[in-house]
Amino acid sequence: MTYPSFHPPVRTLMGPGPSDINPRVLAAMSRPIIGHLDPAFVGMMDQMKVLLQYAFQTENELTLPVSAPGSAGMETCFANLVEPGDEVVVCINGVFGMRMKENVIRCGGTPIVVEEEWGQPVDPQKLENTLAAHPDARLVAFVHAETSTGVCSDVKTLSQVAHARNCLVIVDTVTGLGGSEVRVDDWGVDAIYSGTQKCLSCTPGLSPVSFSPRAVERIRNRKHPVQSWFLDLNLIMGYWGSGNAKRAYHHTAPINALYALHECLVLLREEGLEEAWARHRHHHEALKAGLEAMGLSLLVDEPHRLPQLNAVKVPEGVDEAAVRTQLLERYGLEIGAGLGPLAGKIWRIGLMGFGCNQRNVLLCLHALEAVLTEMNAPIERGHAIRAAQRVYGETGHRDEV
Ligand SMILES: *Cc1c(COP(=O)(O)O)cnc(C)c1O
């Protein structure tokens, strides 16, 4: 029996992640491996830290990529900051807030939930009311960019509300980083985690995190050791180190994956962070114009929409899964399904990182219109592409990434 090598089909990824990867990043990944304590590698790690600080807009010393996907970044924040018996306010407006609550429970904390309807941002007033009723709460956690619904919550205001009640803040920006505004220091965030396969357009499997000096102090002064050995930042700091401190082996770093992340961050730096945010908004506007010209509508109210994750309502009577199958089989195009209460009701169209470009917007509009037309769905035909092109025309041509 012989087994052939695996060759994946060619796809265009416009779902909730992973996103398409720049060939420069794949090339970086295929460079020769070196030791994870090699001075050349340590030099790359130091540069990576500076590049991540730029991406997060922070001077936080403790800024590094956890060697595992976004979910591990989430666990790193909760495992290190929650102690048994702690009251933690968790704001839930989608799938990832629910996972935060589960993390609190598993760390021995007591979750206090602020609920919001899916498709709505977290309400600062509700958070304030909840904190007023729970004066012993030590932490507030919420999702910046809720990938399950396409909603952006106001991190700055929520953080102010939390700090006024002496709580530290944990923020999920797995889908936010690189795609829309993130300002860790200006916003006063204490612990934040992201992922590499969304708007950074890297391979999955790494989770950039950053912790404020206040958060580090709390971690250093814990009464109980961090329950997870692998995610204990007190130990990880020994490898990622600071300044010229000697690096100690903790675990073998995912070396080539880190080459890839380094290249993604170099690309982000070359483009410029604010330019990257503007690019996401620009292509979102074009996609939105096309979808609306087709008679489709977005789930989220305009001021709270994430440009990088477009939740589109499935028209009455349309089998949403059949549409996704057709898009994949005939156009090699992947879009996402709805989750939880939104399953069957929305599609999730990602415009993330390298995949956020004019070609993908036009492909998606064309393919969606063709598939829906064949299914006799109630849509307007023949207007979507022109509507999108009008947006591109209005603002002048922008270079593809
Ligand atoms: C994707 C995602 C995660 C989980 O990241 P993984 O890399 O899949 O573990 C967490 N939070 C949000 C908001 C996400 O979009």
UniProtKB/TrEMBL annotation:
<protein>
    <submittedName>
        <fullName>Alanine--glyoxylate aminotransferase</fullName>
    </submittedName>
</protein>
<keyword id="KW-0032">Aminotransferase</keyword>
<dbReference type="InterPro" id="IPR015424">
    <property type="entry name" value="PyrdxlP-dep_Trfase"/>
</dbReference>
<dbReference type="GO" id="GO:0019265">
    <property type="term" value="P:glycine biosynthetic process, by transamination of glyoxylate"/>
</dbReference>
<dbReference type="InterPro" id="IPR000192">
    <property type="entry name" value="Aminotrans_V_dom"/>
</dbReference>
<feature type="domain" description="Aminotransferase class V">
    <location>
        <begin position="46"/>
        <end position="338"/>
    </location>
</feature>
<keyword id="KW-0663">Pyridoxal phosphate</keyword>
<dbReference type="Pfam" id="PF00266">
    <property type="entry name" value="Aminotran_5"/>
</dbReference>
<comment type="similarity">
    <text>Belongs to the class-V pyridoxal-phosphate-dependent aminotransferase family.</text>
</comment>
<keyword id="KW-0808">Transferase</keyword>
<dbReference type="InterPro" id="IPR024169">
    <property type="entry name" value="SP_NH2Trfase/AEP_transaminase"/>
</dbReference>
<dbReference type="InterPro" id="IPR015421">
    <property type="entry name" value="PyrdxlP-dep_Trfase_major"/>
</dbReference>
<dbReference type="GO" id="GO:0004760">
    <property type="term" value="F:L-serine-pyruvate transaminase activity"/>
</dbReference>
<feature type="modified residue" description="N6-(pyridoxal phosphate)lysine">
    <location>
        <position position="198"/>
    </location>
</feature>
<feature type="binding site">
    <location>
        <position position="348"/>
    </location>
    <ligand>
        <name>substrate</name>
    </ligand>
</feature>
<dbReference type="InterPro" id="IPR015422">
    <property type="entry name" value="PyrdxlP-dep_Trfase_small"/>
</dbReference>
<dbReference type="InterPro" id="IPR020578">
    <property type="entry name" value="Aminotrans_V_PyrdxlP_BS"/>
</dbReference>
<dbReference type="GO" id="GO:0008453">
    <property type="term" value="F:alanine-glyoxylate transaminase activity"/>
</dbReference>
